[in-house]
Structures are given as structure tokens and as C-alpha cells.
Amino acid sequence: MTLQQKHNITVLGAGPAIIFAHGFGCDQNMWRYMVPAFTGSHTVILYDLLGSGKSDLSAYDRSRYGTLHGHADDLLQIVREVAQGPVTVVGHSVSATIALLATNRAPELFSSQVMVGPSACYINDPEDGYRGGFTRADIEDLLDTMESNYLGWSSAMAPQIMGAPDRPDLREELTNSFCRTDPEIAKHFARVTFLSDHRADLAQSRLPTLILQCTDDFVAPVEVGEYIHRAIPGSEYVLIENTGHCPHLSAPDASVNAIRRFVGGRA
Amino acid sequence: MDQHAVPAPDAAWLRAPCGLLIASSSGLIERVNDTFCNWLGYRRDELEGRERFVDLMPMGARLFHLTHWLPLLQMQGSIAEVQLDLVHRDGHRVPMLLNALRREADGSFTDEIGAMVATDRKKYERELINARQRAETAEAGQRGLNEALAREDRRKDEFIATLAHELRNPLAPFANVLEVLRQRPDDAALWHWGQDVLQRQLDQLTHLVDDLLEVSRISQGKLELRREVLDLAPLLTNVAESVTPATAAAGQTLSTVLPERTLLVDGDRTRLTQIVCNLLTNASKFTPEGGAVTLSAKVDAGCAVIEVADTGAGIPPEHLERIFDMFSQLTPPLERSTGGLGIGLALVKGLTELHGGAVSARSAGLGHGSVFQVRLPLAEPAGAAASPAEPAGQVAAPRRQGWRLLVIDDNVDAAETLVMALELLGHTVRSAHTGSAGLAAMEQFRPDCALVDIGLPDIDGYELARRTRAAPWSTGIAMIAVTGWGQETDKQAAAQAGFDAHFTKPIDFNRLDAAIGEMLGR
């Protein structure tokens, strides 16, 4: 199996390289509304985290992916093998942290990083007043919810025909299953994601960094975005008017503009 | 379709048998039906324009909503059969099965959501999940068991291959001797030579089979020790002396280092002899010509410690632990030059443990010799010196009294050679090769003693014995069962069938003669 197959790598367009890393839950399709804005000017690299989407599920090794460093190693390998020249990495949610670990490890491979809806630690830390937004019990509750949707996995997560005659593109999408993966892997990845704490890694970053923070994001609240902005030296912080955790889906234009300004300003 | 037959849309929507709600793009509940409100304990005006759909969810469902529900709805426009808990006004959770459809118009959208209570379905599915987990756990256990069995099976296969090789070893000299005697039937010197060869090979075979049976008896807990408090030192000296001719023939020196004091242990003299003899023979076998074997004993921490050291092949460290296992062997049969199955060592281990002791081996690796150690708990010195002299050797001189003997065995060669040997010993012997022929011969010939093989083709030896014992003329006939199986159960079965004694093949003629004399009281 090639690296391309292992991570379902897609390369589009030409120009300086920009790699998009999706967050917890779905796969590289999450970037679909933003990618067209970059293919004219950039080489766009998309991939699925191992264990997600169409990646090679058989290669999911619980000890390797027992921390986010396993995913960071994968990102470095993909950048080394697929990209030319220094790369801009755009990571959503947990992949913002994965990208942070990768860029800290090999800053020479990267020109800048964009963190979309990042959180360095999802669990509250009463000892030093950090509010990530969740308790361990909340995460257990999420795992339980995922378990509840296990038996209906294929039908719950794969779209169903529900009419919508005004959406001719739906037919093609119905065959996709953006959020489907092995339920056991999904639960393991959820645990690793939501119980990780990489606050100490923020200050190590020396890369030009843009933080895209949504105004109303339950998963990554404004307080957390500001914390990260303060912790990463010289980082830029842009607040996007958006409800939810996926500005790249629900506010793609604002997200594209902020990233283009950041990347263009650096070019 | 008749439009008038359809209830007013609003009333039907409000009373639909499923929960329905419409949420704005901000997630705020704009309309909700009575069914949904009743399930969650709210009034419509408490939800409409006030609460967001996500506000009705517990934390886990909210996370799932953000990471799965919303992205799918945004990309697909719809989502179906998602199970989430919603929270009732009084705080308890209501499992729900949810569908949602996003309707877009004029650059904005609303989400239409349908909900069904799924309490029973969730319980049922929990049961399925639990059952699956139990099945997986059981399967993992079964897999582990199967692997262990397969491993054991492989070792037994290897063991049987080695055993076959070991049993075949003496066959070649048998065949060779026979061929030589066929060519030169009248050469008396060759006869003697052939006799020696056959005797040696027979001893080796017998020894191998005896060891096998004993290990088997130990592992089945059937071997009992005849214990007495005895001094190890003279016992060790005796064993060393008995092995010296063999080590000398192999060009090795055998030395003993024994303490001045007595080494009292509570043990079975015969078995302890067997332990040390096996270790010495083993050491000699793996030591080249010119090498040295040392037998030593000392006291250490309340134990008598016997060590057999050699300057031979040594043992690789990875094999040290397994070397006492029944099925262990260091190399595949064909690579072996000296043979040996590790049965001897398994026997040493079993016998030592029966004595409450422990065995171990150490070696600096291949080519660096080995040391085998046996630790036995020291016995309290008995009040009286408890070391009776060895019973005098009881070699029974064959009494050529001329018994009338009947040999019944379906292996014609075995029967006729036994007949020949018994005749040479001075008896009058007949033979039969089936059970029924045997029974007939029994009645006609009326032997003093019948030697009966158990595995006969028509009626087996036990049945033959029962029928014989049922006949009035059988009182003066001693019957001996002759089998390949020396287990206690075989002896019991023979006794129950009416046999007076049980002999294991091959027959020890001295014992046979003595036993017949004893049975017939002559």
C-alpha cells in the first residue's frame, strides 16, 4: 500500500503547497467549500487522518495513535514525500494540535500554520483556572453517544434519501459517508483527542501562526482561542462570525479570506 | 386525492405521532409540535423562540451534534437515524431517534427535525452491544485456548517424530545382526557378538519405554515413593561406581566430591538412584571423549544439594527453562548425534519434585559445559540410624523344573520365540494364536501356567480368562497376563478378569520362572 492510498491523499492545483488536515468526526471532504479558492494559486494537499475516512483502517495501531504524536509523524511523512518547498498547514480542531506538534518537531518543512477552531486541552483544569469546556464525564458521555450510534452506523451516518428535490447534487453525496469509520477506531480517536493536553507545546511554536476562532463554538470556546493566541508568540487571531465548530463548512468565505490575507501577507 | 379528507395541516402537524420541530439557522427552535413537547415535559411557548435544539441535549450529545450532526447536515442536507439522548424538563434523559432535513431558501436555511422516542430500542441495542462484547471476550479466550492447544499439539508432533526416531535407532542393529547371522550361521564368535549387540539395543529400548511410562505415571499422580530416611553419600558413591564403566568406555573421567558428614534425606532409594543415574548418563552422553564429569554433594540452606557438572556441549540460555519439559528437545531429530528425548530429564524433574525438591540447570552457553543441580530437603536425623543395608541381590536362578506352559499370542513370531526360550529353560510348552484356539488348548493341554496376550483378534485376553475361570477344570491353572501396558489400571483389569499375575513385555525370564513357582506353590 502506498502512502497515497494509506491516507487517501489528494493533490490539486499548482503553486506553493498548502495542506489541509481535517478534525475529529469526518474526513477531508470537510474542506470542499474552501479548496476551490486555493487551487488556482496553490498546490492543495488533502488527506485523511489514519483511522478516518478512506484511510487504511487496517494500519490503525492503538499504541502508535495512542497519542496525537502518531498523527503528527504521519503529517511529517506526508509533507516530506508529497510537498515541494515549505508548506502552509491548515489544521481543524484536533488537527490544529497535530500540526502544532509536527511544526514544532520540524519547523524547516513549514512556512506557516493556520489553526481552525483549535483547543490545546478540552478538559477543564481547575488547578490553574484553565477552562477547556469539558469534564471527563462529558467525554465519557460522548463515547456513550457514539456507542449508541454504532449499530446504526451505516444507516445513521450514511445519508438517507429524504426527498430534497431542490438539491440535484444530493444523489452523488448520498453515496459518500464522510463521517463513517470503524466504530472502535472512532471511539479510540475520540478518547485520544478529547483527553489530550498540549498546552505546554504552544509556547514552543516559532512558526507564523493564524488562529481562526468562531464566535460561538461549543467545542472550542472563545476563551480557549484567546488562551492559545496568548501562548503562541507572535500569533495572529481572527474571530469569525459563526455558530458551530466548522467555519470551513458554515462560513467558508470568511475563512478563505482570513487565510488568504494571512498567507498573501506573508508571500 | 381528495384534499378535503386530509386534516388541516397545522392540526395534523401538531398531533403527529412523532415529534416534529423546525429550527432556524442559528439553531433556535421556531416551531415545535405537541407530541415533542409532551415527551420532554415542556409547553410549546417555553421552547418556541426561546431554546435552541442543542440546549435540549446532554454534553455528550452536544459534542456529537457539533462533530457529526452539523457537518453532515451541512454537506448532505439531511441526516437520518441518529440516536441521541434529549433531556426532559425534570432532568431525566429520553433516548431519541432523530432525522433532520435542511431546507434552503433565499440564502438562509431552516432545519426540520423528526424525533421518535427510542427507549426500548436503546435498551435492546444495548443488549446487542453487550452480547457482542461478551462474544468477543469469549472468542478471544477461545482463540487463546486454541493457540495454546495448537502449540501443545505441535510439541507433541515433534515429540512423536523424535520418539519414532529413537525407537527406530535400535532396529538397524537388529536387522544388521540378523543379516550377519544369516550369512554366517555357524560362526560361534559372531553369535556372541550378535547377542551382545541385541542385548544392548534391547536394554536401550526397554530403558526408553520404562522412562516414558514412569513420566506418564508421575504426571498422572500414580507413582508412589517408598520413603525412608537414608544417607545420600553412600548412595551417590554406589551410583558413580555403577556408571564408571560407561564413562570410562566413552573416554571420560568421572570424579566425585562428597562431604564428610552424612546427608540424611527422606527419600525412595530406588528413585534417588534413578535421578542421579539419569543425570550422570545424560552428562556423559553430551560430553566428548577426554571430557570430565563431576558428581558432588553439599549442604546448603537446609537442603542436600547434588550437582552433576560436565565439560560437554552446554545449553543455550534460551533452552535452560524448557530443558526439563517432557516434550523438549534442543534440535530436530536429524541434527542430533547422541539421541535422547529429554525424557530422562523430565523423569529427573518429576521424581525430584515428588521428593519435595527442585531441579535446575545452568550453563555458560553452547560449548561451555553444563551443571545440573538437584536440591532435596534434609531429613531430621532419625532416632536410630535408619539406613538399613541394601537388601541382598535376589537373582533367581532358573529352576528347570519343567512346567507345562501354554503361550497364547496372535503375534506368531512373539509366541514362537517365547515358546523356544521357555523350552530352552526346560519347560513343556504349547502355543495358540487366537483366543478361541487358546481356550481349546487350555482345556485339552491343561497347562500349569498360561501366558496370555491381551490384544487377541477374536476374544480378548480378559474374556479368555473369564471363560477359563468359569470352567471347573481351571483351578490348577495359573494365568499370567502379558501386555505392552504396565499401568496400574491394566494390572487391576487383569486381576479382575481372573489372572494371577501381570507381566509387561518384554518378559524377564528370571522373574517369570520365580513367579510361576510362587503361584503354583512349588
**N-to-C CA distance of chain B:** 118 Å
Fraction of residues in H or I helices of chain A = 25-40%
Determine the strand fraction of chain A and express it as a percent band.
15-25%
Query: Which runs of chain A of at least 5 residues are low in confidence (pLDDT < 50)?
Result: 151-176
Structural category of chain B: alpha/beta
Q: What CATH architecture of chain A would you give?
A: 3-Layer(aba) Sandwich
* CATH topology value of chain A: Rossmann fold
Number of strands of chain A: 7
Describe this structure in a few short sentences.
Chain A is of the alpha/beta class. Helices cover 39% and strands 16% of the residues of chain A. A seven-stranded mixed β-sheet of chain A has the order 1-3-2-4-5-6-7, with helices on both faces.
Walk me through this protein's architecture.
The complex is a heterodimer of chains A (267) and B (522). Chain A is of the alpha/beta class and 267 residues long. Chain A has one domain: Alpha/Beta hydrolase fold, catalytic domain (Rossmann fold), CATH 3.40.50.1820. Chain A has twelve helices and seven strands. Chain A has helices spanning 3-6, 36-39, 68-82, 94-105, 136-148, 153-157, 170-174, 183-194, 199-202, 222-231, 247-250, 252-266; strands at residues 10-12, 17-21, 43-47, 87-92, 110-116, 209-216, 236-243. A seven-stranded mixed sheet of chain A has the order 1-3-2-4-5-6-7, with helices on both faces. In chain A, helix 2 (36-39) links the parallel strand 2 (17-21) and strand 3. The longest helix of chain A has 15 residues, at 68-82. The radius of gyration of chain A is 18 Å and the shape is globular. The termini of chain A are far apart. Chain B is α/β, with parallel strands linked by helices. Chain B has four domains: 3-117, PAS domain (Beta-Lactamase, 2-Layer Sandwich), CATH 3.30.450.20; 169-223; 228-377, Histidine kinase-like ATPase, C-terminal domain (Heat Shock Protein 90, 2-Layer Sandwich); 404-520, Response regulator (Rossmann fold). Helix content of chain B is 45%, strand content 21%. Chain B is built from 15 helices and 17 strands. A five-stranded antiparallel sheet of chain B has the order 2-1-5-4-3, sandwiched between helices. In chain B, strands 7-9-10-12-11 form a five-stranded mixed sheet. In chain B, helix 12 packs parallel to helix 13. The relative contact order of chain B is 0.06. Mean pLDDT of chain B is 83; it is low at 1-8, 329-339 and 383-400. The chains are: A alpha/beta (267), B alpha/beta (522).
